[in-house]
Write a structure and sequence with these properties.
This protein has 330 residues and is of the alpha/beta class. The chain has 11 helices and 11 strands. Helix 5 packs across helix 11 (299-312) and helix 8 packs across helix 10 (275-285).
């Protein structure tokens, strides 16, 4: 359901694209309908003739996807004959946070950091994008010439950067940090309000992503100044920050001494650059345990290909297994 606003926006920008609104009432749309129509439309936008050259395909999905949605995704790609030469056995569907595990292993281990002197390392992938927060708990262990990657748990939470941005905006609007635009049903007013919201969120993100110190002031277009202290009275934002840090990490690891059992928290996804979140996790487990993968925007795609290679290549220096293939949806 978290993808509905994205699709609605997409339809407004590309009216010739997905026509879900004409097919059914928004309230009647089922999640698997969203998957089918979205992926059909996305792949139809590939350059003409290019789909015929696809013989292997790796797709990623957030941990909020249920088994039904994953099945719908794969069936849509194969049954709709989007890629004429793609066989079922050459289609790989991989959770996004698992793909980041493969990316982290390749980038940090191969580049010489290794397991930092340990035979075993426990990592948490903290992948917050615009729509969802996806986490994987993985154990890396040396076994002879191979490095075993065991993905023990996954969690998907339908809260992401876009939702947090909305909460921040609504809070500042309620505190009258800038003049709100009166509610109206006219298209011009809706556009004006949407543009103001988008401009504000982008300004705030840019300023808070540049440095690891978010105590600096951010000046709004209205001339008013905000900083970290501004949000201390926002109960909703504090509740979200608590849920997305202490609560979710404790639930994921599931041990009383869970804070000590984590060797590394690996951040990916643009939403993970939100400094208040990083600050809270730093306070919980320590700055030395934080790690950011770069580039944030493509690490999932690259990691998914690396993950698929590990599965296919018997001579790979890595092996991957899952203790629990079912993802818990927060």
């Amino acid at each position: 359901r978290s993808e509905l606003p994205m699709i609605e926006t997409y339809m407004q920008r590309f009216p010739q694209g997905i026509q879900l609104g004409e097919l059914m009432d928004w309230d009647e749309i089922k999640p698997n309908d969203i998957i089918e129509y979205t992926y059909k439309d996305v792949f139809s936008r590939m350059p003409e003739g290019s789909t015929e050259n696809v013989y292997n395909l790796v797709v990623t999905y957030p941990n909020t996807y249920t088994p039904l949605l994953i099945e719908t995704l794969c069936d849509t790609i194969i049954q709709k004959n989007i890629f004429p030469n793609l066989k079922q056995q050459n289609l790989y569907a991989i959770p996004e946070s698992d793909a980041v595990v493969a990316y982290y292993v390749n980038e940090s281990i191969i580049n010489g950091e290794g397991l930092e002197g340990k035979e075993c390392q426990t990592i948490v992938i903290y992948d917050m994008g615009a729509g969802t927060l996806d986490l994987s708990l993985a154990k890396l262990e040396k076994k002879g010439d191979k490095l075993d990657i065991c993905i023990e748990k996954r969690i998907g939470v339908p809260i992401g950067g876009a939702y947090i941005s909305e909460v921040i905006y609504d809070f500042l609007e309620s505190e009258q940090f800038f003049e709100s635009i009166p509610d109206s049903d006219t298209d011009d007013t809706k556009k004006q309000k949407l543009n103001l919201r988008r401009e504000f969120v982008e300004t705030l993100k840019c300023n808070w992503e540049k440095e690891y110190n978010y105590e600096e002031n951010t000046v709004l277009a209205t001339g008013k100044t905000i900083n970290a202290d501004t949000f201390k009275t926002s109960d909703e934002l504090n509740a979200i920050l608590s849920l997305c840090t202490n609560d979710i990490l404790g639930y994921l690891v599931g041990k009383k001494d869970w804070k000590d059992s984590i060797d590394k928290v690996v951040f990916s996804g643009r939403g993970s650059k939100f400094i208040p979140i990083r600050k809270r996790i730093e306070e919980i487990i320590g700055h030395e345990k934080l790690f950011s993968v770069e580039p944030l925007k493509t690490c999932v795609a690259i990691g998914a290909i690396q993950y698929q290679r590990i599965i296919k290549d018997d001579n790979s220096p890595f092996s991957i297994k899952h203790l629990n293939t079912h993802q818990n949806i927060g």
